[in-house]
Amino acid sequence: MVVIQEPLSALLAILLLLYLMKRWWSHQHYPPGPLSLPIIGSIWRIRFGIGLNERTMIKMSKQYGNVFTLWLGDMPIVLLSGFETVKEGLIDHSEELSGRASSPYVKFIGKGKGITFSNGDLWKQQRRFAVGTMRKLGTGRKSMESQIEVDAQKLVEIFAREKGQPFDPALPIINSVSNVTCIMLFGHRFPLEDENFKELIDAIECTFKFGGSPVHILFELFPWILKRLPGPHMKALESIKIMFSLGKKEILKHKKKLSSREPQDFIDHYLLHIEKEQKNDPTSIFDEDNLAHCISDLFIAGTHISALFMQWAILLLTNRPYIQDKIIKEIDDVLGSSSICYEDHKQLPYTNAVFHEIMRYRYVVLIGTGRQTTKDVNIGSFFIPKETVVIPDMYAILHDPQHWETPEEFNPNHFLDKDGNFVTRKEFLVFGAGARLCLGEHMGRMQYFLFLTSLLKAFHLQLPPGVKELSEEIVIGTLLSPKPHKICAVPRESSSKSIQNAIDSELTN
Ligand SMILES: *[C@@H]1O[C@H](CO)[C@@H](O)[C@H](O)[C@H]1NC(C)=O
């Protein structure tokens, strides 16, 4: 036995040594970072050391610098922190960082199709088409802005139905925001009580909750095992399927109607494009599968994130009635009683500054979907090889003490000069930057502005009786949400009559 065991252990020792040397060697190619252990990498540092929250990366960058590597098993993830570094990465090296990280989970759900999770030529073409189509849909008689105004008014009516009593605004807000996205994508809206709608919202929530969870990390480490086991990752997968089947149903409905009408929404335009492309090029990458992925990508991006910004806005403003009053005064002084349109934001510097400050103070994305380098690239003094996952820490930029006077305080002056003019801040990277800049920025801004001004014109947002303050604590997930809460929307005198009329007319309809 002894004779056999000795060479065996010697062999094992040599193999282990070779393995460690290989690991050490491969780690030399990447920026430094916390100690990486075999198999699990350095993710343990987050779970068991620093804790996962919106400040995790800020704390790590203090220790390891503005460019550092975290190892997820043997997959390196390079993190960028600080405005200058992120700008250098996303803007100066926009092309090199335009890839989308394809981790095992991303491959599992995204299949490399659509816009968010695709890469290369396919991504470029789908994105270009989506940008162009959204622009087309944004102009013309039934423009996006007038649609958004309709939805803003509906939201005001729904708030008014609560008659100033405490209620949780979360569901009406998400319904309202998703109505805007649905009009653009499908050409119709969903009633709040619709089963399809509820299923869809739950599905999206489920995928967001899964992102960053311990099981998600296990999935990235051991995909081949997890794919065969039951668990929350299967529920997340199920949710994706729900989104696709809804998309496919809509595609089918649109195909039936399309021959008899002008294209009205995203699906119509895409279907026509498929037809056109396939005539010229049978290998075209425009097909119904990609369309279904585009639908779910645009829907996911267009609803939960915008809705969360809106929820935070309502919460923060409810805690700060004096800011609501200042906004209303500005609107009254500048616009009088005439109705408000998006263009008006240029004349309302204080209102605009408050709305920007809300997005800065309570930015809603914990860790954005990673990029992937398409070429070798140097950022700062660090070399990052081709096909490395890179994640910029947007939260840190929006709270960087070198760039904001009071990063941890809600302070509209961050966006005002001393004469009260609105100032654009280059550090305001809420919509991202570079090649993967948010597609829906214009629509998102319009919606945010019109929804909030409509609500503020109609209501005093107030704390429920007996409540001193709403908690501004952040609930950590892939997205950063507020705790569930209730508010009271008490009609302002000037507006209560017109709202009452609106309700009456709805009741008689
Ligand atoms: C969304 O649209 C549906 C259908 O038009 C409507 O019933 C519902 O009230 C809308 N929801 C909101 C919050 O505006």
Outline:
With 509 residues, the protein is α+β, with helices and mostly antiparallel strands.
Set down the secondary structure blueprint.
Layout: H1 2-27, H2 44-50, H3 56-64, E1 67-72, E2 75-80, H4 83-92, E3 99-100, H5 104-110, H6 120-138, H7 144-160, H8 170-185, H9 195-210, H10 214-221, H11 223-226, H12 232-258, H13 266-280, H14 288-318, H15 321-335, H16 349-361, E4 371-372, E5 377-379, E6 382-384, E7 389-392, H17 394-398, H18 441-458, E8 459-462, E9 474-475, E10 481-482, E11 488-491, H19 493-508
Parallel strand pairs: 2-7
Antiparallel strand pairs: 1-2, 3-4, 4-7, 5-6, 8-11, 9-10
Helix pairs in contact: 7-8, 7-18, 8-14, 9-12, 12-14, 14-18
Question: What report would you give on this structure?
Answer:
- This protein is α+β, with helices and mostly antiparallel strands and 509 residues long.
- It has a single domain (39-508), classed as Orthogonal Bundle (Cytochrome p450), CATH 1.10.630.10.
- It is 55% helix and 7% strand.
- It is built from 19 helices and eleven strands.
- The chain has helices spanning 2-27, 44-50, 56-64, 83-92, 104-110, 120-138, 144-160, 170-185, 195-210, 214-221, 223-226, 232-258, 266-280, 288-318, 321-335, 349-361, 394-398, 441-458, 493-508, and strands at residues 67-72, 75-80, 99-100, 371-372, 377-379, 382-384, 389-392, 459-462, 474-475, 481-482, 488-491.
- The strands form four sheets. A five-stranded mixed beta sheet has the order 1-2-7-4-3. Strands 5-6 form a two-stranded antiparallel ribbon.
- The longest helix is centred in the middle third of the chain and has 31 residues, at 288-318.
- It is globular.
- It binds 2-acetamido-2-deoxy-beta-D-glucopyranose.
